Amino acid sequence: MSVYHTDDTGGSRQYNFRRIQTTTIRFQVKAGHDVAICLSSDNEEEPEDMYEIFIGCWEGGESGIRRKKHDDVIRVETPDILSEDEFRTFWIKIQRGTIKVGRSGQRRAFMRYTDPETLLHVTWYGYSTGWGAEGDWVFPDDEDTSSSSSSAMSSSDSEAEDINNLEERPIQYKRPARWVPAAGGYFPRHPVSGGEGPDGEVYVGMAFHEGEFVLGMVVPDQGCCYIPYAGDAISKELYFVLSNPASVTLSWEPCSLGKVPPGALQGGRTGDGESLFIGRVSVDGIVAIGKVHPSHEVCYVPYGGSEHSHKNYEVLCVRNINVKV
């Protein structure tokens, strides 16, 4: 996942623009103060008409929404909302004529504005830092934008292109699943569900921790992925979500003692190179998702703030892979 840097632009607010992908913009930012996002119908250097969302401004203690560069329509106290030492995750939702701004793990917005006129039709957003602050940014929607950009192909991509150029092509199969980078509650399309968790539906996730990719579960309402590791349930704001864009038939199959059924989806490797698989268990009717560790003969899952091991579990398997039409 790429990290973008913004310099201190003083009070001029020079924005770097990105196309809006969905009705919810999610981002992570690491800056001491004076973070700004603008919403505009174009990506000109200085849009004539826009909304500006300020976070941690006015000496770092307030946030607000500005209309047409000079009308502060909302202003609220938000002490310590930013940090120059760690990333903080935010979301901006544009829906039904209203702009909402919130923090990761909090469903309730800390700023909300309904334009008394018709809400400006926004298709671009820009990001900036100023008034003595620089910033680093992460955008989960990079996965969507990067897929359409030109880049060097791997050898397998090149081979696929050669096949596609053939006049008579052999049968091609749909990819069963893929890991999509995400952060702060962001979700790709077609996420793989694990069932009902303690706070609603949970999804198959994975996060990088201590040099390993560790399987776990994404809890949307909390904006994070919980992974089981060294006896603890660890919360990660940067993670991956398992997506099934081709709608391949997946199923959870019962197993035990470190074994996995035919068609089991490998979910990662240990630092020693051992294959791990995607597993889940049900505790008092509540689902927890984690990793099947064959040599340990258990499935490790996070719940209740700790890592728990279970000898009986279910494994995510591919039942049927369709051909491309």
TrEMBL record:
It holds the Pfam family Methyltransf_FA. PANTHER family: AGAP009604-PA (PTHR31649), FARNESOIC ACID O-METHYL TRANSFERASE DOMAIN-CONTAINING PROTEIN (PTHR31649:SF1). This is Farnesoic acid O-methyl transferase domain-containing protein. It comes from the Eukaryota. Residues 15-139 form the Farnesoic acid O-methyl transferase domain. The lineage of its organism: Eukaryota, Metazoa, Ecdysozoa, Arthropoda, Crustacea. SMART domains: DM9 (SM00696). Residues 146-157 have a biased composition (Low complexity). Residues 138-167 are annotated as: Disordered. It comes from Petrolisthes manimaculis.
